[in-house]
Amino acid sequence: MLTERGVKARKRHFDSDIAEVRALDDRPKRTTRLREVARRADLPAERGGLPPRIARYLETASNLPSPCLIVDVDMVEHNYAELVRAIPEAHVFYAVKANPADEVIARLAKLGANFDTASIGEIDLALAHGVDPERLSFGNTIKKQRDIAAAYDRGVRLFAFDSEAELVKLAESAPGAKVFCRILVDCAGAEWPLSRKFGCEIPMAADLLVRAKGLGLDAYGLSFHVGSQQTDLAQFDKAIAQAAGLFADVAKRGLTLRMINVGGGFPSRYHSDVPPIISYGQAIRASLKRHFPETPDIIVEPGRYIVGDAGVITSEVVLVAHKGGSDERRWVYLDVGKFHGLAETMDEAIKYRLLTPHDGTETTPVVLAGPTCDSADILYEKTDYRLPTALKAGDKVLILSTGAYTTTYSSIAFNGMPPLASVCI
Q: Which of 232, 303, 418, 420 could form a disulfide with 410 if both were Cys (CB 3.0 to 4.6 A apart)?
């Protein structure tokens, strides 16, 4: 016979209705909002497809600049709710850098989200939307001392670090604040892997956390990031196992850590299919149960997963040309490129899906490039992209799943061209 707890657990596992999402802080407004998501969400037939609300908007919109990013904020809310459902124990800190549009921040703030910020500008943005500073993390490990002080004066009490020098700055300008140390972990399996720029080796992290306590800071825990657009679920288990070892190490030295920040890495759907968010939740929760006798506080920092699939860039073909010689591929130049927000095509890492007016007709291989007078402005030359042979200058091309890391990467006026425009619906 099932206990009351067992009945609730079974219902939560099998019932797909988002009404079963339980918010961490149990705020009534947040729970009510999440219950509405499943009834309102208007999703594409397949993940990463053209969102229906954006399709309808494009049918009637006039005088849209090109290129332009359109973001469906209802999909942003849906994705947030799905993540909460997948990892109900976690405190969700949205990575503002992914897309700081006012409409996105406002919607997530109303849902009770927390925010991972990288600068005073992002902190002030969140505060302007009524977010309590207790819901903010200054997650950049490279901060000017005056910015640490400014964040502390604004009420921020959660800070990241990964070096002794940064720790000393925090002790001086954010006395008594909660701090967490970022560790280096393997990024294998990530389409946008991270370098050694952020994080430190685990033995150093242990020493720094012990020192943080000695400096009067609250040594709260640690963080890691397994790489952006991570598709190998096993990487989370490897990192969590390393984190557990660090917890045990510092415990022997008289320090009890209370938090593990598993970062982001949750993917959008680009050229290839990816596991559903529920699989990430299951992998992370199982790993925590395996490696920690008592589960610590959990933080996740999604960015791409929350906004990526909710956005579509509408662009225009500027030129279709041949170069001659043995390479018979057409060069298709769009009015959007690396300098207009598609920076993640660097090394052809992120492979976006495209829609054209001629889909379903004969296709041939192409090289895709942007419009600027810079030879680096080539999107895909090595990857096998094929587009309709009927494609011509003036045709519209939709670039799917571009809601994350596009407007924030767009240059201000390179070659005198305006930055990527954006509309939220």
A: 420
Nearest to 182 by CA among 168, 169, 201: 201
CA-closest candidate to residue 32, choices 22, 41, 47, 42 = 22
> pLDDT tens for residues 286-307?
999 999 999 999 999 999 999 9
Angle of helix 73-86 versus helix 28-40 axis, rounded to 10: 110
For the entire predicted model, the pTM comes to: 0.89
Q: What b/e sequence results for 353-387 when a residue is b if at least 16 CB atoms lie within 10 Å of its CB, and e otherwise? A: bbbbeeeeeebeebbbbbbbeeeebbbbeeeebeb
Q: What 3-state DSSP class applies to 166?
A: helix
Q: What is the pLDDT of residues 369-390, one digit of tens each?
A: 999 999 999 999 999 999 999 9
Residue 18 pLDDT greater than 90, yes or no: no
Active site residues: 373
State how far Cα 67 lies from the chain centre: 22
3-state secondary structure of 315: strand
Q: Residue 37: enclosing H or E segment and its boundaries?
A: helix 28-40
- Identify the bridge partners of residue 228 per DSSP, sorted by sequence position: 192
